[in-house]
Amino acid sequence: MTANASSVKIENDNKQNGHVVVEMEHLKKSFGNNHVLRDINLKINKGENLVILGQSGTGKSVLIKCIVGLVDHDDGKLSILGQDISELKDDELIEIRKKIGFLFQSGALYDSMTAKENLEFPLRRQLRSISKEEMNSLVKEALQNVGLADAIDVTPSELSGGMRKRLGLARTLILKPEIMLYDEPTTGLDPITSKEISNLILEVQKIYNTTSIIITHDIDCVKRTANRIIVIKDGICAAEGSYTDLQNSADPWVRSFFE
Amino acid sequence: MEKIILQQSQNEHHETEIIPESFSETISDSVFKKFFLEVSSLTTFTLRFFKEVFKPPYEFNELMKQSFLIGYRSLPLIAITGFIIGIVLTIQSRPTLAKFGAESLLPAMVAVSIIREIGPAITALIFAGKVGSGIGAELASMNVTEQIDAMQVSGTNPFKYLVVTRVLSATLMLPVLVVFADAIGLFGSFIGVNLKGNVSAYLFFSQVFQSLEFQDLFPAFIKTFFFGFAIGLIGCYKGYNSNKGTEGVGKAANSAVVFGSLMVFIIDVIAVQITSLIQN
């Protein structure tokens, strides 16, 4: 190993030991003349629940899509688990993605498959040598964890909005990701189901020691789940702090999110 | 402790010079630009298909599943269409041949028509309507509901899993369906001949096989692979690159059928030219 490579490895190890799992420096992303992310600087620690707040269209979803490589950033540095994702080859990006779970706003469940098949899909793709018994046991466990044990043979179209979100969460968690990205996990749900989803996010953090980035407009969800909050405005991090800090912010615009 | 980060003034106004243009110039520019962008995008998509198709891992199970859905599930429609083509072509051709006293040539004429042109072309058009639109709508719907993104995030290559398998299935299944349609069409023709006559199955099919040559069968069979490939590829392209929103699903399904059918005719013209050049 060359001195340079060795120093990179040590730096990566330090980041893991120092518990920084996601790091962004001067991250920029534009769509034509629409500069969505202008200068995002952010470090996210292992086991932390970070909530991203901001008005609609401010690039919150674009930011988490950059993290998982669904959208390529234009400029700046984005490191996931110590690896700069803009330098990764396709195969390396796939390996990184295996460590990241993404709960889509709509659940993004495969319509043509039952709940069981939806959960089996990522297992089959990533653990190619897994036995049928092991797969059945993992599927049952994942469904039980989200309270959907009875819905094993049901197709997504037969499920309610809350159940779809929970099934989406089960599908994401079945591979035990190190980083979880939640895109508006409680949008469109009633207050009771929203509370259930928020509690599930907390349980996931406790059980798997997962690092989570949560995009939401639901202040109750923010209050329950956030260890730290950032507010995005005009493509930059306009404010950062705990729930109480930002609730009592000197900036009336920041405070307005919590009223 | 809360950190308030000072914002820079982001109000950037870009003034653009407005150059007066005639309406027709603007329209033709945008139409040409759109056309060339579409051709470029389709070419990139096709090249990506050829890059991914040979690269492991191979999605054999999905290929089998799609072949079943695309091939086996299309059999009833293809059978009905083939039978109707055979019977109608026979009934329509009989009076003309009878006028010239050539009624005995009816089985041969119908066989050559069905095998060389009508069987492959009509089956491909039906296939474009059923399978092309189905693939377009399915992939567009998956795109709209973020299922393709979900697949990508879970470490699966959605292009390989969804596009490569469907294009390969369409390419392999259409020739099989055409052979099936041709056979059913000839059976329909036999029924058509016997509506106003009494010809035994042995005599009918003897005349059919005597009239057919290798140069009738081979080019007609080969071109069906290209028909299937074009229909599958365009269906996948339209669905995979559809606009977000429910409108995008309808547009993808519609344009998959329109462009798929158009490609069938274009390939047919090219195939006929090549065949006649080789035969001459």
Summarize the structure in short.
With 259 residues, chain A is α/β, with parallel strands linked by helices.
What descriptive keywords fit this protein?
heterodimer; A: 259 residues; alpha/beta; Rossmann fold; six-stranded mixed β-sheet; four-stranded antiparallel β-sheet; disordered N terminus; B: 280 residues; mainly alpha; 9 helices
Shape category of chain A: globular
Proportion of helical residues of chain B = over 70%
Strand content of chain A: 15-25%
Mean pLDDT of chain A: 85
Considering the protein shown, what is the CATH homologous superfamily of chain A? P-loop containing nucleotide triphosphate hydrolases
Cα separation of the termini of chain B: 87 Å
Kindly state the percentage of residues in helix of chain A: 40-55%
Could you say what the CATH topology of chain A is called?
Rossmann fold
Give me the number of helical elements of chain B: 9
Side by side, the strands of the main sheet of chain A go: 6-7-8-3-9-10
* Integer tally of domains of chain A: 1
Radius of gyration of chain A: 19 Å
The CATH architecture name of chain A reads: 3-Layer(aba) Sandwich
Number of helices of chain A: 10
Multimeric status of the protein:
heterodimer
Largest sheet of chain B: none
